[in-house]
Specification:
270 residues; alpha/beta; Rossmann fold; five-stranded mixed β-barrel; 6 helices; globular; binds hypoxanthine
């Protein structure tokens, strides 16, 4: 709690900003930043109690600015469990967001498509998630001032935002999917048997992020909305080459403008 307050205090002092929207941008999905009227950019390395992001393609910057008339704070690059961080470390920025005033969280990620109807480059509006990490970020002593011991998870992704996102996509003739995201620790991509297992679980897409952040946001009653960009397909029989990190990034960059448009329109209308 002290660390959260210290970091939020530092950022408030530096920016004199009270953001109402938080944004977390995944691998190759930083294009939304171009649409932001940036007021302050702070590298993670210069923020007390923040970690520095290590993954290729993750810039590691906190951006404060105006997007569609709303005060936002955006993470360009996130912390992943596979980097070796604890769940509390991975989700620390979301705690700070709440302390700064954030009421809505928008997240994006690159994900592998499990649903057989999906194609590479598809955009999936996250309807629900499965926590397949080996732990939960809320494990341990509960800080009552942040949220309840046993958070309710029946509407983890805000149904109003989902409804609006679908309307926006249809209006702009953007093809979209909607489905369940399963978050797993990585850093290995899945074996064919694991992809099959995830499909049997009822998931439509799989990735290595988002779930911890959204759990912590919901703990603090922040409304969440998420989009996965399907960067590869988990269909062993049809896959002619294995998934690479480079492939994931290229596809993410191509599909990104549609996601940016949906985020912008949703934020405009908050
Ligand atoms: N599995 C896990 N994470 C991913 C994948 C995948 O296939 N694609 C992009 N992130």
């Amino acid at each position: 709690m002290e660390k959260i307050k210290e970091t939020a205090g530092f950022l408030k002092g530096k920016t004199n900003f009270e953001p109402e929207v938080g944004i977390i941008l995944g691998s190759g999905l930083g294009g939304l930043v171009k649409a932001i009227d940036v007021k302050h950019t702070i590298e993670y390395g210069n923020i007390p109690n923040f970690l520095s992001s290590t993954v290729e393609g993750h810039a590691g910057k906190l951006i404060f600015g105006i997007l569609e008339g709303k005060k936002i704070m955006a993470m360009q690059g996130r912390f992943h469990y596979y980097e070796g961080y604890s769940m509390q470390q991975v989700t620390f920025p979301v705690r700070v967001m709440k302390m700064m005033g954030v009421k809505n969280l928008f997240v994006s990620n690159a994900a592998g498509g499990l649903n057989k109807a999906f194609e590479v480059g598809d955009l999936m509006i996250i309807r629900d998630h499965i926590n397949h990490f080996p732990e939960n970020p809320l494990r341990g002593e509960n800080l009552e001032e942040l949220g309840p011991r046993f958070p309710e998870m029946s509407e983890t992704y805000d149904s109003k935002l989902i409804g609006k996102a679908k309307r926006i996509a249809s209006q702009h003739k953007i093809k979209f999917q909607s489905g369940v995201y399963i978050g797993s620790p990585g850093p290995t991509l899945e074996t064919p048997a694991e992809y099959k297992m995830f499909r049997i679980f009822g998931a439509d897409a799989t990735g290595m992020s988002t779930v911890p952040e959204v759990i912590v946001a919901r703990h603090m009653d922040i409304a969440c909305f998420g989009i996965s960009i399907i960067t590869n397909l988990a269909e062993p029989s049809e896959v002619d080459k294995p998934t690479s990190h480079e492939e994931v990034q290229n596809v993410a960059e191509t599909a990104e403008p549609h996601m940016t448009l949906i985020f912008k329109e949703l934020i405009k209308d908050l």
